[in-house]
Amino acid sequence: MGLAVIYGLPPDRRKQLLRWAKTSPASGWWDSGPMGMPGELGALTSYEEDAVRMTKWAPGLLPGLLQTAEYAAAVMRDDGHSEEKAQSLVDARLQRQALLDRRNVDYLAIIGIGALRNMLSSRKDFVEQLWHVRCLSKRDGIDIRLVERPTLHAVGGWYLLDFDRFGSMVHLEHLRSATFLFDEEAKPYQEVKRRLLEIALPPAETTTRLEVITKMCEDGSWP
């Protein structure tokens, strides 16, 4: 209930989530996660465990669930975190990624071309990161789609989760906080998802394009 109040859920939604919690185990590594892990990250991880579909729109930064440890560490350092805090957050991110291995997932990452130019790490680590994304694009349950065309929606990313027992939720990440949107507030993101998929490369073309870009990055001609 505390998180429901903190994140501004309306009373009827709080009651519904309480009823849901009584019939669903909510414990996991996030309940006693790495020291200093933000509360909203624990809440997000709990939601991920129960989601039946996950869609990440990442216009400028590769999705956390697809990041290598080295690239994730570079992201955390660029965000101003100390080495100790950065490592703690990377550990939490890697534990979240285990979700993609533990069960059949329906994870869609729609990635903007800007994210493939955002080389926050060394070139060597970025090449390894790009190869990692390409390999994941071939796995069952993981659908990666590249958007190279200009779009208004490049101004900001979001994370849409769909559930069996209660509608949808959108996670909006801010600099040092996050917002959770539910039900009616989440509906517009379903439409944006549809429009982005209309302009995104198909899965096979995305995989091929990722291979080309990765090789260009290896020889120094990208980004």
UniProtKB/TrEMBL annotation:
Lineage: Bacteria, Bacillati, Actinomycetota, Actinomycetes, Pseudonocardiales
The name this protein goes by in its record: DUF5753 domain-containing protein
Domain DUF5753: 43-211
Entries under InterPro entries matching the protein: DUF5753
